[in-house]
Every structure is written in C-alpha cells, then in structure tokens.
Amino acid sequence: MIELGTCAGASADAYLSAAPEAEYLGIDVFGVNFRHDDNSPWDPYQIAQRLFEARGFKNCQLFKTDLRELSFLPRADFVVVDAAHDFDNAYADLKLALTARPTFIFVDDCDDENGAKPAIEHFFKLHINDSIDYTVHISYMGGGLVVKLKNQDYSVSA
Question: Model-level pTM?
C-alpha cells in the first residue's frame, strides 16, 4: 500500500488497522507547522512514526519528498491519493499512482468541485476510462472514490 499525502498518519492508522500485515509506504513533504495555542512545532513525520510504533505497525516506511519530484512509484496493489487537492496536483498524483501498477486506487476528497473532482474526470477520460472495472463512491465529508482497475494496460503519458 502506498499513500500519497500521509501527513501525521491518521488515515494510515485506519488503513493499517484494517490490514495490519500490509506493507505501507507513506510519501509526503511532512512540513513542520506551528501550533496556534503555544507556537510549538507540530512535526507530522515524528507524529506518524510515533503513531505507527504505538500501534505496533511493523511494515511501515515514511518517505520525505515532494511528489512532483517523483516520476514513478514502486509496485503496489493499493494506492491512496490524498496529498494536495487542487486540480494540477490531484491530476499529477493520479498519474503517479498508475506507475505503481495498482489494482485499486482510492481518492480522498473526490467531491471537491474545485480540485479533485475535475482532476478525476480528466484523468479517467485521458488515461483509464476503458480500464476501469468499477468505482465505488464513499459518502463522508469531501467524499472518497474507490477505483478498481480491470488490468494494467493503461497509459501514464501526459
């Protein structure tokens, strides 16, 4: 499993709780922020590491990088797209997800009319429309979309 946009690991906690033996790679810039109440640093990388350790998740790796600097991902059955939610980044993340040759892609915040939703529609039309086995929309704030791919004969070109 690969997650594009790990932040502090809250979503990863849910995925790994459902599949604790899964191998997990979380990719994010993990930028340090400062808390509003006391101006102390909030480090999502350290928080995610501590969370995984506390929960006993053994097969987890975190990778600090800008997703736009990656041209491919390692092979994974399941890729989560949950990083920047504007059109350009969501579209680029979907294309990057395909390089893992996944069986499933999960897109968070798929209902965002100004970001992920039009990026998903554009991505489907140009890259995988004929390779989609099925999709399942999950209703929650922002929405989620599970995409099951038929096969791995799809284009990842521009």
Answer: 0.91
The pLDDT tens digits along the chain (158 residues) read 999 999 999 999 999 999 999 999 999 999 988 887 888 888 999 999 999 999 999 999 999 999 999 999 999 999 999 998 899 999 999 999 999 999 999 999 999 998 899 999 999 999 998 899 999 999 999 999 999 999 765 556 55
**DSSP summary character for residue 86:** B
Distance CA 13, CA 33 (A): 21
Joined tokens for residue 96: 């990057």
The CATH number of domain 69-158 is 3.30.1370: yes
What b/e string do you get for 6-31 counting C-beta neighbours within 10 Å, with b at 16 or more?
bbbbebbbebbeeeeeeebbbbbbbe
Tokens of 63: 């990778």
